[in-house]
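User: Can you fold this complex?
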Amino acid sequence: MPFPVDRPRRLRRTPALRRLVRETRLRADDLILPAFVNEALDAPREISTMPGQFQESHDSLLRTVSDAKAAGINAVILFGIPQHKDAEGSEAWNEQGVVQTAIRRLKHEFGDAMVVIADNCLDEYTDHGHCGVLRPDGSVDNDATLDLYARTAVAQAAAGADIIAPSGMMDGQVAAIRQALDDNGFDETAILAYSAKYASVMYGPFRVAADSAPKQGDRRSYQMDVANQREAIRETLLDIDEGADMVMVKPAMTALDVVARVRDATDLPLCAYCVSGEYAMLRAAAAAGAFEERAAVLETLIGIRRAGADMVITYHAREVARWLDEEEA
Ligand code: PBG
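Assistant: Here's the predicted assembly.
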């Protein structure tokens, strides 16, 4: 007779037992909603590469965030699409620029009840689509870019952003932003560093959504090589040294090993970004009948949390918050 000493199945017998021994949980509190606001729009416009996601007008953004709030979401990360782009991306730090205006309106409407995170980068604002300013030879000038990130961060903080999230992968960006925030009286504004951000094909749909595809070349000279894991730890520790309050791994599904290692490397809050391509894959597979979207999304998000992320940026945030509510009921 087989004689297994340990019988894990005993604890899987009923739904209540399974709930009792569940190790990882997902709550609406863990989710951050990404939102695109386009200065040129009067009404929301669906994003061709991301079915079910929209570029918002200033007014429709308020409705979307209000809907998210009603579903239990408490945090939003904003991406702006300006009407005018130039070589430096100067609309990024314009006090009346698209994201600054959106932040002010959200803060006016929701106050402290909604955490407003400002993505800090230049790719949506530059006419060439790179995340920094270019040298004559077309390469991205790291240190010249830092000044522009710092100015942008100050404008975002002045508009009322709770958290600045630098996503450009320039060396020294966290230190430059922390210094500029402190020098301008924004010592209480936090930094969520996109610490381990890979040069990933998974951002494809976003570049259509944010109109930010590089006109020439790619981002491999500043974003991380997808083959590297140890380097992610180096990047994370550097950002922490420079003053990051929270760190991020991006993408999520293709970098779960990195999430797990970064989790071990720091006790700071850890965010994972389930990016546009991951959203698009889940939607497309569900639409093709491969699986039910709800189950696939919930399994994906719990997997990201299990790997070690405290919170997840996901385009599915609103639906997930509703699904979780239904499960509770
Ligand atoms: C840069 C930025 C990007 C994303 C977030 N911030 C694009 C890029 O690096 O090319 C991608 C997010 C996604 O794919 O959902 N501002």
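Residues 119, 121, 123, 167, 203, 206-207, 219, 275-276 surround PBG (CB under 6 Å). The longest helix spans residues 142-159.
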